[in-house]
Amino acid sequence: MIPLREMKGTPVIAGNTVALVLVFGFFHVSDSLPVKDDFNRTEWPYIPPFHYDVIDPFAEYRRLKMLKAFLVGTKEEPSYSSRLKSSMDQIYSLSYNVSLLCRQHFKIISEDTGHDLFNKFFTSNGKQANEMIFNNKLFMGNFEQCEKIDTNVNGSEPVRGRYTHFSLSLRVHPKIDSTLSILWYICLPRSCTVEDSRSVAKTFQNHFQLDSVRSEMFEQWDSAEDNWYHLAVTLLVCLAVVCFIATAVDSIGVLRRKVNTICNSHDLPRSKQAIACHILMSFSLRRSVHKTFEADDSEECISCLHGLRVISLIWVFAGSVFYIVPTINNPQRRYFIITSRITNIVYSPFPVDTFFFISGCLVAYNFLNRMKNLRNLERYQMIKYYTHRFLRLTPLFTLVMVIYTGITPYLEHGPFVRQDSNRHYECRLHWWRNLFYISNLFDWSSLCMPWSWYLQADMQFYALAPLFIVPVFYGFRRVGVSVIIMMVLCHILSTAVILKSYEDWHLQSHDQYLTHIYIKPWTRVGPYAFGLLLGYLLSDWGKDIKISKLQVRTGWLIATLSFMLMLSVRDNVLAEMFGVQPFLKLRKISSYTVLKSSLWSVTLGWIVFACFSGNGGVVNSFLTWEAWAPLSKLSYGAYLCHALVILYINHNLYYEEQFTYTYAVQKTIFVTVYANFLSLVLTLMIDTPIRNLVRPFTRLSPTHRYQKVHSESQEDTLLTSYVTQEEFPSFETQVETKP
């Protein structure tokens, strides 16, 4: 590689110049982007009713006034709520076109007087919430009471209850261009099938004069016929048994000494006994714990990335708590919370960009450091480059996917699981997309484990990284820089073209935005490209970089201003999204969407560069805190498990929750603790063992020139740096994660 030490001041000057260009272009690039100029409603192809209504505060006031008259009533006309309430006691006596047993149980319920069966069913049904005027359109009943109903009447088949969710849609007023949707939970006889519930919904539509009614009855999974359940249980049991045997052998003194003698044999080729010993001891919990929590003292480690990774992961958890919310009884309160300035920091896409940046930085830095003293790259080294990555990511990812698909359906029992009852089917149909790391190329609605889209994109970027690192390894620096420029231009132009194609910054619906912009690799590659460039520069320069105090202060000033600018613009974008401040033009929203990742990457680049070169000050002291390192090693599993924890909480609730700041903070802490706990268990059982198994494959051939000039201890130091500080940042969505 061509040394760049004679250009020590260049990176700071170049970085500052790029940052200034991006900041300046943030408000001027919109002139060249093909986007809308104003908020002309008639030109918008579609806007969700909630967003549409609140754009104009006066229209929102009129809508709420009409809604109040509709629900509460006036002197001239009784309220719809009272009419609906007076009809609720008739639901068990209506004439339904249902199966024979279901019809008989309806009749028994309506005519029952001796066993108080009617009261049990009726009191389990959802009632109108007092706060309905504040957009709480949930008629929630008593799920637990309904599910416990089990009564024999006159020797007939027992009458049992099953909670069923009905979505009622009706037009409130001719002058309001939207419909009112009500979620109504009703306790039906368990003998009624899904088809029966649809027939009941049709009867409701006619009886209550509704625009439409949709029913959703959750059917309990049958584990006896569930192959995914058997697969998940088998894998977990086998892993537990192997870990127990390996730990027992490694803990007994006599056996441990014998095993160490066999495993540490340096005879080449190694015997089958030594290989089997190495495989078994890789699953020893005793060694896995030591490996997971050992300190990384390598001087070549970029220690500040541990802190950035963990902080970004917690940031993802907080965003997921706001995004993956359970059914709540104060949605209007949540509306005000998510449009506040504090939430703008939490509910943002920057943690995902941080993970992509970290990943690109470590890929380039670690690869070039390991190959620094080589003259040529051989074919087997590039094969190991790809196989090592696949073997490191896939086992834990596959295990979590199997648990999510085969185990979690049996751990969730609550009224709200019905609203997401089809999520497991996507994994049963499209699991292969995850294993080939291509699921983010499909629609958001068809993703298995939607928060895993980040892993798919990161693997795709990893596959493309040699387009940059191989040319710079051979000294073709201009070729490498050209690749970086092409990646960044791909990121910017593809986002702008997609925005123009749909002629609306949020692409008509949230799912379309996620499908066409948020998860696609060509719209997210920018931060990864900046990370690759920084990793190359850090590998080439080392830590002995001398820059003036003026350059340091200028860099921190620009980084701080960039951060504040992005938060300010982000605040306006959220306000525009929810109609609070309709003064920001769509051109600036599109400019923000296009340039935010690049500006954020430049900011991160300065932080990492300053900390690496000894100019980080208190920021570097905080990011290199020793507690971050073990948590950083658990971040991969924690990200994969965090959505499982959130969904488990949401789907085991019996009642709706109050969405407040306190609720969000408490839930974020809870998710962080339990996600890291699950990550620790899975890391010790499979992630660290697999890391130990694939580690020999990362070593260079003993006959290679690298072995002749470097001792075994020096090689281990480099490999330790490479293994303990992995390239992948283990995100979001998410959640970046999540992501």
Automatic annotation (TrEMBL):
<dbReference type="Pfam" id="PF01757">
    <property type="entry name" value="Acyl_transf_3"/>
</dbReference>
<dbReference type="InterPro" id="IPR006621">
    <property type="entry name" value="Nose-resist-to-fluoxetine_N"/>
</dbReference>
<feature type="transmembrane region" description="Helical">
    <location>
        <begin position="459"/>
        <end position="476"/>
    </location>
</feature>
<feature type="transmembrane region" description="Helical">
    <location>
        <begin position="631"/>
        <end position="649"/>
    </location>
</feature>
<keyword id="KW-0812">Transmembrane</keyword>
<feature type="domain" description="Acyltransferase 3">
    <location>
        <begin position="304"/>
        <end position="682"/>
    </location>
</feature>
<feature type="transmembrane region" description="Helical">
    <location>
        <begin position="669"/>
        <end position="686"/>
    </location>
</feature>
<dbReference type="Pfam" id="PF20146">
    <property type="entry name" value="NRF"/>
</dbReference>
<feature type="transmembrane region" description="Helical">
    <location>
        <begin position="522"/>
        <end position="538"/>
    </location>
</feature>
<protein>
    <submittedName>
        <fullName>Nose resistant to fluoxetine protein 6-like</fullName>
    </submittedName>
</protein>
<feature type="transmembrane region" description="Helical">
    <location>
        <begin position="307"/>
        <end position="325"/>
    </location>
</feature>
<feature type="transmembrane region" description="Helical">
    <location>
        <begin position="483"/>
        <end position="502"/>
    </location>
</feature>
<feature type="transmembrane region" description="Helical">
    <location>
        <begin position="228"/>
        <end position="249"/>
    </location>
</feature>
<feature type="domain" description="Nose resistant-to-fluoxetine protein N-terminal">
    <location>
        <begin position="102"/>
        <end position="199"/>
    </location>
</feature>
<keyword id="KW-1133">Transmembrane helix</keyword>
<dbReference type="GO" id="GO:0016747">
    <property type="term" value="F:acyltransferase activity, transferring groups other than amino-acyl groups"/>
</dbReference>
<feature type="transmembrane region" description="Helical">
    <location>
        <begin position="345"/>
        <end position="368"/>
    </location>
</feature>
<dbReference type="InterPro" id="IPR052728">
    <property type="entry name" value="O2_lipid_transport_reg"/>
</dbReference>
<feature type="transmembrane region" description="Helical">
    <location>
        <begin position="599"/>
        <end position="619"/>
    </location>
</feature>
<feature type="transmembrane region" description="Helical">
    <location>
        <begin position="12"/>
        <end position="30"/>
    </location>
</feature>
<feature type="transmembrane region" description="Helical">
    <location>
        <begin position="389"/>
        <end position="407"/>
    </location>
</feature>
<keyword id="KW-0472">Membrane</keyword>
<dbReference type="InterPro" id="IPR002656">
    <property type="entry name" value="Acyl_transf_3_dom"/>
</dbReference>
